[in-house]
Structure formats: C-alpha cells, structure tokens
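User: Can you predict the 3D structure for this chain?
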Amino acid sequence: MLKRQRTGSVLCTSCGVLVGVNDERCYNCNRKNPGLWGFAPALRSLGTDLGFVPFVIGACATLYVLTLIASQGNIGMRGLFSLFSPSPQALFLFGESGAVPVFVAGRWWTVLSAAWLHAGVLHIVFNMMAVRQLAPVTADLYGPGRMVIIYTAGAVFGFALSSIAGAYIPPLLFLRGGQFTVGASASIAGLIGAMLAYGHRTGSSAASSQASSYILMLAVYGFMLPGIDNYAHAGGFAGGYLAARALDPMKPERIDHIAMAVACLALSILSIVASVLHGLQFLG
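Assistant: Here is the predicted structure, written as structure tokens:
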C-alpha cells in the first residue's frame, strides 16, 4: 500500500537531493512538487522504474496465458520458435497488429496492443528478459515517466512501420513487413534508441557504446533467426530515439511526464479491451 509521508524530508524524485516533503520546488533542480505530495518515498520503494518491469512481465504473462486459453487447444508445438504458440485467431482477438489487422480489418489501435502479446514461450521469455535489463537502465537515464513514454512510442512507431511495410513495400532480403505481428521487441528497440539518444545528447561514450552493441545484436538476430520483424525493430528504434530527443535527458523529469506515462498505460489497456470487443464481433 502506498503510504503518504506528511512531514519531514524526502529525496527529490528528479535529482535525489534532500528536500522538504511539502516543498513547492526543489532548490537544486527546480522541479515542482519534488516530494510528489508525500508519496515519493512509497513510490521510490517500487524501484527506479516505479514497478514498471513487474507490471509489464505480469501483464504480458497474463495475456499470453489468456491467448493460450482462447486458442481452445489449437496451440502450436512444431519447432523451437513456435513452441506453445497461441492460435492466429486468439492473437487476432487480443490485438495483434500488422498489415491485415490495420489496413484490412481497420484495427488501427493494435499498434499499441500488439506490444503486450507474444507468439510463443521463447518469444515472451526472451522479450521479458530484455525488458528487465533495459527498462531500469532507461529509467535511470530519463526517469520512470519518460521511460514509459519512450517504451510506448517504440511500440507505436514499430508496429506502424511494420504494418505500412507489409501493405505497401515489397520484401527486401530479410526486410519483410508484417502481415500479422506481435511482441514487446518494438518497445525494447525503443529503449535502445533512447540509450543511443542519451549518448548523443550528453556525450556519454558508455551509453553510445552500449546502445551500439544492442543494435548489432538486434541486426544479427534479425538476419539469422526466422520470423523476426525487422521493420518493427527499426520503427521501434526510431520512435524511441525521437521520443528521447524530444524529452531531453538533460532536463529533469516533470510531473506531467508521469501523467503522460499513466495515460500511455491506460491507452494500452484500452487498446486490448477494444481489440477483444471488436474481435468478438469480427470473428463472429
């Protein structure tokens, strides 16, 4: 339970300097309401990402189980990368994206919902490991609110590009647009883009070097492994990079960034609900 602290001192949620719990501004970074109405200590106990990583893992795992249940026994078991894969109908129902859902079925909101769905047990395990590794790092660099915004921008840009490529761009070597596509990797690519943006903005060679190694890894996996949506990765990376540059890590995180992050999560949840409600009518 989030318990409010009404008196005493707290750490500013932006710069970490000790401030009064009721101070209107931080004297060090000038952030408004640095104690977040006395809830800053409770929120800090959730970690630097404010509990975003366990939320993503829990939500993705729950939706993965629900898609398996909705598959009604039609679960893929052929091959390592399709092991325990939900049925195409179940993934469509819960909000997979791609050229067909977006441009044929008119389900444009799936650019948000698809980031929470996965096509197999290895798919979700590897993606959740990457979220667990990259989200806290990005939150350290930008703050938890801006990290969530970047994560969401990666999904929107990634699945939008993949859907457009699937509809209008012919396949080029290992670049192939998605007719149907899911996974958190577009958002993960967005976090990598934010790391590179941080290096470019601040001059941090460590951040740029780390981001470059992740980019190389994505490129190698995209070339070697079957079924990788490289357009989603490219779009997610671009979305994360652009969002990160606009949010500017050299400036402290603001209250409205937290509000925008909550809005991003709310819209993501609504996109899944809309997919199910629309999908039941569509499949029926």
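The radius of gyration is 20 Å. Residues 52-283 form a domain with the Rhomboid-like fold fold (CATH 1.20.1540.10).
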